[in-house]
Fold each of these.
Amino acid sequence: MERVGLVLEGGGMRGVYTGGALECFLEHGIRVPYVIGVSAGACNAASYISGQKGRNKTVTIDYVSHPRYVGVRNLFREKSIFGWSLIFDELPNKLVPFDYDSFYRDPGSLWVGMTDAVSGQAFYMEKRETEQAGNILDIIRASSSLPFVSPPVLAGDRVLFDGGISDPIPVGKSMADGNDLHIIISTKPAGYRKTPFKHGWLARRMYGKYPGLVDALENRYQVYNQSMELAEELERQGKAVLIRPSAHIEVGRMTKDPVKLTELYELGYRDAEARLARVKTWTETPAALA
C-alpha cells in the first residue's frame, strides 16, 4: 500500500509560487494526508490544511505593501526584516483570520521543519504537538526565522532558526516517515543548484556560540543539492511529482512588488494544474489516504 507525502520547500517571498500551487489543489479537492514544509512552505501549508481558499494570496500578496510587512525599519522594531507581529499575530488573529479549528480538526498531519541552533540538526514538530506546546504559528515562525535578518525562536530549551538551513527540501524525512510517493513543490527552477556559502566569517562572528548552526550554514549548499538530486531521481523512478517554476520571474526572498508576486503565484497555479492528472491518481485512491 503506497503512501503519499506533500513536501514543501521554503524561499521567502518566492513561497507565493507554493501558495498558487496549493490553491490549485484546494480548488480541485486534492488533500494530501501527510504534509511537511519548512519556512514559507510551512506558512503556506497551514492555510492549505485549514482549507481556506485564497488566504495564502491575501496574506502574502495583498498585504505585502503594508509598511510593516518587510523592510529595514522592522529591524529596529522587532530585530527582524519581516514584521513578525503583523504576519504571525495581527494577520491570522484579526485581519485575515486563520481557522485554527479546521486546521486541528483535519485528520492529516503537518510536520514543520526547523533548525536547532545548538546541534545544527533539523528538528521537526507535528501539528498536534503544538496544541500542548503553544500556538502552531510560533512554530512556523521559528521555521521562518532566517539568521542575520531574524532572531531565533525559543521553544523549551531549544534555540530554533529557519528549517531551510538544515533540511531545505525535506523529502528524506517524508521517506523516513513511510511515504512511497512524493509531491514536491520547489520554488527554484529546473537545473538550479546552490553554491558554497560565502559568509562563514560573519556567521562565526555573529553565532560563534552556536557552532552547530555555523556548520549547518556552511554545509547548506551540499544538503540542498543532495536533496534536489534525490527529488529528481525519485521523479525519474516515477515516485515523485516535482512541481517547480516553468518560467523565470524575477522574485527574490524579500521582493515586495505585488505584480511580480502575482505572476509567480499564478505560475504556481498553472504548473500544479499541468501535473494535476498525475497527482489525482495518487491522492484519490484508498492507499493514499491510509
Amino acid sequence: MTLSSSSFDAIVVGTGPGGASVARELARAGSRVLLLEQGGAAPLAGTVTQMASMAAVPGRGAFIHRDASLLVGGTTLGGSSAVNFATAAAPPAAYFAAYGIDLAPSLAALRAELPLAPLPDTLVGPMATRIMTAARAAGIDWKKLDKMIRPALCRSGCWRCTYGCPYGAKWSARDFVEQAVELGAVLQTGSRVTRVLLEGGRASGVEVKHGGQLQTIHAPLVILSGGGIGSPRILHASRLGPRDAPFFSDPVVAVMGSVADIDGGAEVPMAAGWHDPKAGIALADLTLPRPMYQAFATQVGRVDRLFAHRRTLCIMVKIRDDISGRVGPRWADKRLSDGDRARLQTGERLARTILQAAGARHVFKSWHFAAHPGGSVRIGAGVDANLQTKAPGLYVCDASVIPQPWGLPPTLTLLCLGKRLGQHLARVG
C-alpha cells in the first residue's frame, strides 16, 4: 500500500524539535500520524562530511545573507537538533503569556523526562574553564548553561557535538521521532513537501516530492514544522502566506585569542556563559572543531593563526536581532540593522575584555553567521494562540511562530510548543 492510498489522521512536515514533539503527542493519543522529512535518516557519524551534507548544502541547509553572513540549519532527521550545541535555554515565558499561552506545564514535564542540566565539572574542558574564570574575574556573572546531554555517555576531550554526536550522549529530536514510530507513526524521509492541499478552505493533505515523483497524501490535519525558512515557503506556495516573510536569525560572531599554556581544542561547546536579556546579548565559550576554526581564520585573512587551534580560546557573541529581511520562494535575504551592529559591537568588547583577562593574545573575530531563523510566521500574525493558520486544520509548530526576536537557542521552547499543540489537538480531535 502506498502512502497516497493510506489513511492518516495527521501529517507532520519536518522532524525537528517542534514536529517531533507534536508527532509523539499525537501518536500517544492514538492518532495515525505520518512524519515527512526532507533530509535523510543515516545514523549520526560525527564527521565533517556528514555534517556538511546535512547543514551546509546551499539553498537547502545554508543560505547566504548580505553583510558576509551565512545562515545554516539542519536538513536531516531531527532537524537542527542533530547538529546543534545541545544548549537548553528555557522558553521566554513573557513572550507567550502575552497571547495567553502558558508553557510552564509542558516545560515541567520535559524537565522531568529529558537530560536537562549543566555539565558536571569533569566534562567542562580547560578552555571553557579558563574563559569562565576570566569572565568572573572581570566581574561578569558567567554561569554553567543547561545542556541536553547524557553525562554518562559523554566523553571528555571529544569534539563531535557540532558534527552530530555518534555516541548517543547528545539528545536530539530523533529520540522523539523514534518514540513516535514505536507508537505507530509512519516516517518517510527524502520527502520535500511542496504545498498544502485545501478543500473548501480547509487543509486536506499535502503535495510531496519523493524519489523524483510528486504524490498527494491526504489527512484532515497538517502541521508544518519545516523551520523558520521552510514553513513560510510552503505557506506561500500554498497561497496561504506572503511571498516575502521577514524573520530573525540570531547573528553570531566568534571572538578568538591564543594562550600559551593550554593544549586543547576538543570539548563540549557552550558549557557556560552570560546573558543580558534587556540588552539582547549572550556570550558563551565556543570551542570548535579544527576545520571550522581554520575556516573562520581563513575567512578573515588570519592565516597566521591557522595552526593555533589547540591554543585558541573562542567566545561566541550572539545577539537578539531585529525582525527584517525576507524569506523568499528560493532565497533568504537579511541585513544587520544599526541596532544589530551596536549589540554585536558591545558583545565583542565584552568578549575581548574576557580574553584579555584570560591572558590571550592575537585576538581576532570571525564574520557573523546565524543558525536560528524564526519569527517568519509569528503568533498573533501568521498563526493564532493554538498555532493554527487562517486555514482550519493547518498548524505551524517550529521557530517561525516565536512571536519576538529572542537571541537564545530555541530547542526547548519548540519542544514545549509541540507538546502543548499535540495535547491540544488530541483533546479537540
Amino acid sequence: MDLLKQSYTHGSSPLPPNATATPYHVYLFGGNISKSLSPLLHSILFRANSASWSFHLTETTDSEIFRKRLQDKTCIGTTITMPNKVSFGLLLDGLTEEARMIGAVNTSFIRLDKNGQRRHIGTNTDCIGIRDSILYRMPHAATAAKARPSMVIGGGGAARSAIFALWKWFGSTEIYIANRLEAEVDALMTFFQSTAPDITLKYLTTVEEAATCETPYIVVGTIPNNIPREPGEITCRKICDTILRRKDKGIVLDMCYLPSPVTYLYTNGKGNGWTVIPGTEALVRVCIAQQILWLEKDVNQQGVDDAMSAIWKAVNQRQSGPKASKI
C-alpha cells in the first residue's frame, strides 16, 4: 500500500479545491533547530508544487505550544524532532503503523473523520526516507536483500527507524547491531520485542564475530561522524571496518550528513567497493514523504533535483564557513 493511499485509512482529505493557493502553514518543533535544513528543502518542494505554503521553526519542548498550533486551522501539518518525538506523538489523535512500531513520531498530517472533524495523525517518515533513498539508487535492492542479513550502526532513535525499514521493506532475516554501549542495544532489543517480535536482532560485540558472520547486504549508519575515543567506540569502528572489508559487497547508507555527508563510513564503504548513499539523500526523501502527506500528491522531479542540489550546496557552505560545526 503506497504512502498516500495508506494515509486515507485514517480519514479523508482536509484540503479544499484551491489548497495550493491557500496560505497553509507547517511547523517544525524541536530543540536546537535554528540551523535546520528543513526550511530550505520544504520551501523548494512547496514551490515546485506551486503551493503558497510556508514552513516555520518553533524551537520549543512545550507541549501546550504544540497543542495550540494544532488547533490553528491554517496548520496543515508538523514535523517533530528531538527531544519531542515521543512526547509530542502522544498528543496526536492517531498513529500509523510505522510510528507505533518505531515508537517515535517525526511527522503529523491531517485527515477528517466521518463527521468532518480534523484528526492529527502521527507517522515516522525517517524509515521511508531510508527505504526510498536505497531503492532510488538500487531499484533491485528489495529483491537482493531478501533473506539476507543487514546491519545498523547505532542504538538510538534513528537506529529504530533503520531497523524497521530493513525488516519491513527489505525482508532482512537478521539485523546486526554495532554500537558502543551494550545497554543501548539491550533497550533496543527489549523495545522491538514488544512492538515487532518477528524482528531478529543480533549484537555484534567482537571483530571475530564480524569476520565470521554472513555479510550484511545493507549497512545503515545512524551515529555522528566522530573520531572513536572510548573503548566501545573503537570496537564499534573496528567491527564496521571488518564488515566493509568482507568479500561480498552491498549498500552503505550513512544517515549522518553534518558537518559533511562525506563521512568516514561513506568513504570507507566506497573505498571497499560498496554502493554508498549519503545522508543528504535520505533527508530529502524524508521531506518528500512529508510533502506527499500534506499536499496529497507526488513531488515533481524538478523539485526533487533542486532539493538535492540545494542541500549539497548548503552543507558544503557550512563545512567551509568560519563557524562550521556539527549539529
